[in-house]
Every structure is written in C-alpha cells, then in structure tokens.
Amino acid sequence: MRIDILFLSVVFVFISNSYSISESLQTDTNRIEADSCARVLDFDCAIDSYKEALLFENVDSSLVDFLDIHNRIGDIYYKQGYFTEANRSYQLVLKYAEKHGEESEAAKALMGQSHVLWRYGDNVKSIKNILKSIDLFRSLKDTANLVSASNILGGIYVSTGELRKASDIYEETLSIAIAGKDSIGMASSYEYKGVIRSFKKEYAEAIKYYLKSLSINLKIGNEVDAGITNANIGEAYMNLADYKIALEYLSVAEEILTRYNFNSGLIFVNYCAGECYMRLGQFSKAHQRFNKSLALISVTGESREKSTVLGLKTECFELEGEFEQAYKLQKEYAIAKDSLNASNQNEQLMQIMGQFEFEKKEQENLFLQQENDLKAKEIESKQAQIRLQYAIVIILIIFLLIVVFLFIKLYKNKKLLDEANQTKNKLFGFIAHDIKAPLGNLQMLVHMLGDGYAHNKEEQSKVLSELNNCAYSVVQLTDDLISWSVAQQDGLNFHPENLVLGELVKDTLDLFKPQIDFKKIDIENSIQPFLEVYVDKKAFLSIMRNIVSNAIKFSESGGEIVISAKEVMDKKSGRAMTELRCKDEGVGMSKKKIDLLINSNQIHTTRGTANEKGTGLGLNLIKEFVEKSEGYIKIKSKENVGTRFSVFLPTVDQ
Question: What is the C-alpha separation between 33 and 21, in angstroms, rounded?
C-alpha cells in the first residue's frame, strides 16, 4: 500500500466537491466550455479554455472568477502530475485572495498547495497549509471542503504512522458524508478506511472497503476515482500474493488513468504491476514497469515515490542474481530513503501536529460552551413559543368545537326537514291508496244502478244501503287519515298498543264487502278471538287494508281467500311473534318478482284480474309499517296457483 494513492483520491474529491459545475451559469463562452471539458475530464481542453477565459478576467474586474479559474487550473495540473505549474497557480491565488480577504478561495488554494508540498516531501509546510485550510473552512461553515481538507490531514497522519488519529478522522468524515447524502464523500471515506486496513496488513478487510468505494464511484460516473480504487484493490491482492487478480485490477486502473493522463496515479500502478511481475519471476516485465515509474517521477518531479521504486528495482536485480547492478542501485536507494525518512520524522512536524491537537481540543471546548449557552437561550425562547402555541391551539379547539356544534345542529335540522318532506310525500301516497278501495266500491255500485242491475225496489234499496255504507266508510276513512296525517307532522311516530286481531281483520273485510261480493270471492276468516298483537292501530289497519286489497285484486272471480293467525317463536330474536297469514288462489308471482317487490323501494303497479288499477304503493306501505312495528314479512307464491302473504308482528306486551 502506498500513501500517494490515498492523496490522489482526496484531491479528486476536492475537485469534485469544491468546484461543482452546477455553479451559476457564466455568460462568458470560454468559461462555459472550460467547465464542460472539466466535467468530462478532458483536461487539455479545460486548461486551454480556462486560459482563454482569463483573457477577459483580471483582478480588477472580477476577483472571485479570476481566483476560481486559477484554482481550477491548479487542480487540473496537479491531477496530471505537473506539480510546479499547479503550485504556481495556487501561489497566485493566495497572493490576491489573502490581500482582498477572499477566504474561501484562499482556503481552496491552501488545500491544493498542501498536496503539492506533500508530493515534494515537505511535510512541515504541507501540514501548516492544510491546518490553515481547515480553520478557514470551519469558520466559513463549508462542510464539503472541510471534509476534503480533513481527509488530507488524515493522510498525513497515516504517512507518519499515526493510524489511530487518521482512523478517527475518516470515521468522522464518513459520518458527515452519510448525513449530507454526499456520494463522493462516502466513496472517498470508504477508500480511506481501506487504506487504514492495508497499513494494518488487514488486506481482506481493506478490499471490502475498496469495493464499497468502487461501487459508489461507478454508480455516479466518477471514473478517475474508480481508476484509483482499482489500483488500491490490485495492491491489496498483491499483498495477499494473488498476483494474477492483482494484475487484472491494475490493468483496469492503468487504462482509466492513461486515458486521463493521470501521471501521479500511473507511477503507483506501474511499480505495483512491476512488483507483481517480480514475484511471478517475470523480471524483464518487472524492470519495464519500474522504469516507467521512474520516468514519470522525472516528469512530475515527485520525489516521495522514488525511494520505493528504487528499492523494488534493487530487489529485482538481487532476485535475478545481478548483484553488481543491485549494489550500484542500493546507494541511490539509500540516499532517497534517508531523505524521505528525514521529512516524515521531522521534529518540527511532530510539534505542529501536537499543537494542532491541543488547539483543536480548546476550540471544541469553547464551541461546546458557546453551544450550551445558545441552547439555553433557544430552550427559553422555545418554551415561550410553546406556551403561545398552546394558547392558540386552545382557542382553535374552542372555535372548532363551536363550528362542529353548529354544523351538527344544521345537519340535524336538514335531516328533520328531509324527513318531514318524505313524510309529507308518504302521507299523500297513503291517503290516495287507502281511500281508493271504498271509492272503488262506490263507483261499482253506481255502475250497477246505471246498468239496471237492481230491477226492483228491494234490490235498489239494498244497493242504496250499500252506497250509504260505502259513503260512510269513505267519510270515516278520510277522517281517520286526516287525523293520522295531522298527528304525523313530526314524522312517522307510532304508538303501539294491545289490539284484538280478529276485530281489526273483521272491520277490514267489511270495508271490502262490495268488491268481495262483486267478484264472488269466498272469505274464510279462521282467526281466534283471543289473539292480540302489540302494534299501532292505524298502521295495522293500513297494513290489513293493503293485504286484503291485493288478495281481492289478484283473485279470480269465484276464488277463495283464507285469513288465519297463530303465535310463533322468532328464531333470530327469540321473542314471541304473531303470524298473520292471507292466502289466495290468484294469479301468483314468480320468485324474481317477489325478490323485486321485497328488496326494492321502487313503486310497481299491476292491474288485477278484473282490470283493477292500483297505485303501486301498497307493498311499500306494508313494508314501511311492518318494519316500524318491529316485524317482518314473508311472501310465498307460485304463478297461476296463488300467494301466501305472512306478516309477523309482536305479540301482546306483558
């Protein structure tokens, strides 16, 4: 595992997070083109376009844009391994940013320059710059860049062997990235956790974290970081001695990093591939790879990796038996390694790190104190707000209760009005239906007189007597209906009482005597005189009139109607009921028609056997009054055989 790969990942996250291409749309064409090229990692195009954009920008006209462009150029140069050019851009940004108080751009330049200084092996200046950058990002509350800068600090801790401190930083940055749903930050943090595992020689665990990072990078299209992660996975497999798989991952990394001219990453890929070939005994290929790394180091001026490559090349000569070559190279390797160790173990560097840790703790304590004071004030303010909210809620609840009360009252009034209208309509129907039978008798008797049916005085006297009885019945019925309708103005209010069933049936049959005689129907009334029912009298008379009327209406001339009653026990309710039956030998009904009559509230009218015309309200009246009387009806019928109509009503109330 080589620490440079960690920092290459960090800088890419830095570029991605710090300089999102989703900034406000620029009016300058060259700037837009440069941003587009940077998005697709076409670095040459981006550099050219940014430089052209600078021709229209200067430190007097648009300072922020001027500094931002130079920071972007510096980042691209760093990614290509041109550290001198990158440092020149960052230095220019710092010159003007610090002078004009542009802290955000200064912090980004310090972070970029810290990378360059680390590559050159100057850890002291590198850590000074990154600590300044962290302080600025923290004061600016720039969370994304604070994470990137903290990760760089973690990388320096790794390079000095402070793995525990580095691990703590990476845990913190991962938590921040997850909380902010920052996919790039999460990918980088997982990669850094893998780096820590690799330094601890826990290579299998390292691969698990690398694969998490790789999955996220591939998902979001972060190709360069995906290339770096492939290289790190390759190195982990190499350390597990699985050289073939290692070379596969290194090959993928090389293809990606070559495509984007990522020289710093290619240094690492080549000497890792060289080590794999060396372990496989393919020394010629190993030397080719080591030489590529050294050539790229010459191009980039990066001294940190030189000792590593020279050490591997020396070992390769020894394994080949080329001891003279190994001896010559060993001297050069020793010089490079001593120089690097001196940089990493510098006493001043350790002092800076210790001072930073102390100041960080002090700042955290001060921040916690300020945060506690602020929270106390917030709690006091929130309590006042809560009290006010409670008062408002109580007022709203009272208002809502008043509204609900008024609504319920209006609803009840509307319901009463609807019921009154329905009652009115029913009353008209009841009157029309109940008065029709005696009026029909009158019409029939008058017709008999007109046709000369009564040939002598005795017959005429008999007909006139019947006319008088019918007229009396009409008057009596009208009085009853008017009295009943007046009593029902507030709805269909029933007043049940104990009634002798036989008497009510006899009165009803007397009312229909002319029609019975006219159709020569034989009536058999077998109701016992002691039977009583508990029902509203007027409602029962209306029920009985309709039952008898329908039986007569649908009976053939000369037919028979049997009326009977008995006490039964209702299985559902378990209470005693009186079953009143009216059986005729009329036209009967189909089962479909019975279901339609019982289950539908629609009006159905059918002419009788003597062409009698009905109102269609009869069965509806029966159903209405029987249900109101807490009873029910049953109909059993067969076409051309007859119908048995049963009404079940409560027995006498004890």
Answer: 11
